[in-house]
Amino acid sequence: MTKRPLTLDRLAINQRTFGPDVDLPTAVEAAARAGFAGIAPWREHVTSVGRDAAARMIRDAGLKVSGLCRSGFFGPGSRPEDGQGALTEMLEAIEDAAVLGAAAVIVVGGGGGANIDAARARLCAGLAAVIPAAAAAGVRLALEPLHPMTAADRGCISTIDYARDLAVLLDPDNTVIGLALDAYHVWWEPYLAASVGRAGKRIDAVHICDWRVPTRDLLLDRGLPGDGVAQPRRLRCLAEAAGYRGLIEVEVFQPELWALADPLRIAEAARDAALAHG
Ligand code: ZN
């Protein structure tokens, strides 16, 4: 397994690491000043400045786009219009990603609601419906397995192998559908090394952070790399051994970090933890 150190020229930061309300210009400026190579913007912030302006400001700051967060909420919902809303949203996300030059649109799948089989079937049908648009735009869709604790309300793609099976089923030639691997969500998988190895060339994104013990909030208690038991460096090295050569994105949602208030200090804290432990 490769063990080359993580260097700043390969490190990206997820916009929400700055907090949910920090706008794109502020996040881009702080990421660039802290020396990051890339950023993963969130769609609502891209929309609020306009996708062309967003692309320009990111490019002018010398940053790449490690991923566009996030899309593909095909559930829960039994109403027919839920699926249509998700499709419209995904097609817009694909257009955003094309303009931004994003490595991928991050797809979390939506929650299972009262019928997780039905939700997964909707996800499968929804992805099949948007593959032509993604292929035409040259945009990859990275399925992000979320921890099963979110399967009911946010993400029904629950394991790396399930994400890979879905990708292979829908896109056998690996032209569009890949995977986003997030240490917070997959660290516990019993066959992690084998699963990451099988994901191989489909890995489009690697997110690092940590799992605190005890975890006090399932959404907002993500640790900085090194603050928990998720071994983010292990995931990063496994992905690289499987052929991944893209950016490594630090993605931390944590009110204590946000309380630093100064975006540059937040960026530097995330950067230093990622380089030391990612
Ligand atoms: Zn993630």
Describe the structure in your own words.
It is a single chain. It contains eleven helices and eleven strands. It has 278 residues and is α/β, with parallel strands linked by helices. The protein has a single domain, classed as TIM Barrel (Alpha-Beta Barrel), CATH 3.20.20. The longest helix is centred in the middle third of the chain and has 22 residues, at 116-137. The mean pLDDT is 94. Zinc ion is lined by residues 144, 182, 207, 251.
Strand content: 5-15%
Order of helices and strands: EHEHHEEHEHEHEHHEEEHEHH
Name of the CATH architecture: Alpha-Beta Barrel
- Biggest sheet: strands, sense, closure? 9 strands, parallel
Structural class: alpha/beta
Number of domains: 1
Helix content: 40-55%
Distance between the termini: 15 Å
Overall morphology: globular
The largest beta-sheet arranges its strands as: 3-2-1-11-8-7-6-5-4
CATH homologous superfamily caption: Divalent-metal-dependent TIM barrel enzymes
Annotation, overall tally of beta strands: 11
* Unreliable stretches covering 5 or more consecutive residues: none
CATH class: Alpha Beta
- How large, in whole angstroms, is the Cα Rg? 17 Å
Number of helices: 11
* Mean of all residue-level pLDDT scores: 94
Bound molecules: zinc ion
* CATH domain fold name: TIM Barrel
